[in-house]
Amino acid sequence: MAIETAPLLLSSREEVESIFSTDGINLRIDDQDDGVTDGTGGTNNDEAYLIDALIEASDEGYQRLLVKYDDDVLAESLWVRRRVSYVACHLLSMRKGNPAQYVDMYDRYLASFDKVANGGFVPRAKPRGNFQPTMSNIVVDNWHTIQKVRVQVDSSEGPNDPKQFVDTVFRGFRGWWF
């Protein structure tokens, strides 16, 4: 049985506080109304509610963006962090039976994550993979009985796919030994 590790959070308490304010967060996570939200454990583990909202909001981002971006790139992106912070505020606002806040922002930001998942890009973030433009010049090589179309490496640009069939031409010499 695999043990789940703690995720790299895409937002923080400070970022959520910049939206909700310290009092706004304490109002939503302090169940005993004692003003203590230190997360010391036991019956007064109020800080865990905020952590749960941050984890769930980060998972929403990871679910849609991790296919195209590394997690450390996502954690450094202000664009992602801002959106995840609003998702966390939305999730946190529904605690204690309260009506949800930031519904429009929640829907808009999850839709922007979906746009990225469906072909868009995160601004100012380096995606996984190689998006370098490539051009392969090909030649029909009648010497081969199958797979006659070959790539001329000397006149091609960018990385060559290892699945390509490379032409055996070397400076006009086909390697025929007579």
Question: Short description, anyone?
Answer:
The chain has helices at residues 13-20, 22-29, 47-65, 71-76, 78-93, 103-117, and strands at 135-140, 149-157. With 178 residues, the protein is mainly alpha-helical.
What does this structure look like?
- This protein is mainly alpha-helical.
- It has 2 domains: 13-117, no CATH class; 130-178, no CATH class.
- It is built from 6 helices and 2 strands, in the order H-H-H-H-H-H-E-E.
- Strands 1-2 form a two-stranded antiparallel ribbon.
- Helix 1 crosses helix 5 (78-93), helix 3 (47-65) runs parallel beside helix 6 and helix 5 (78-93) packs across helix 6 (103-117).
- The longest helix is centred in the N-terminal third of the chain and has 19 residues, at 47-65.
- 23% of the residues are buried.
